[in-house]
Amino acid sequence: MSQATGNDGEVLYQAATSLAIVGGEMLAERIAMRFGLEEVRIETGTTTTDTSLVLGTSLSPRLYIRYIQGLIESTSAVQVRYDLGTHWTVLTESGTRTGNGADLLFKLER
């Protein structure tokens, strides 16, 4: 590993992360069942610092909340999704991961 270039290191990181995720899926399912969560997963990005633990659950049929904690860097965020109706959804995020923001989405299906 000490002789790997930047690109080699990223490839090795992606391979190791993939192996860890495969073994961690069963553990994530057990954690979700134990704590009543709908979502427990490891989210990976393009670099080693983008790896996060994601926990989420529905608080009501229209309200979903998700907590994201960085595993390498100390970043975190809370995301909230609220369905306003059949076509409208509000998405918000607050935290150190990407800052604060909100989106209003309109969904049209054919």
Describe what this molecule looks like in 3D.
The chain has one domain (6-106). 27% of the residues lie in helices and 40% in strands. The chain is built from one helix and six strands, in the order H-E-E-E-E-E-E. The chain has a six-stranded antiparallel beta sheet. Strand 3 (63-70) and strand 4 form a beta hairpin. It is globular, with a radius of gyration of 17 Å. The chain starts with 5 loop residues before the first helix and ends with a strand. The model has no long low-confidence stretch (mean pLDDT 80).
How would you briefly describe this protein structure?
The chain has 110 residues and is α+β, with helices and mostly antiparallel strands. It has one helix at residues 6-35; strands spanning 39-43, 52-60, 63-70, 76-83, 88-95, 101-106. The protein has one domain (6-106).
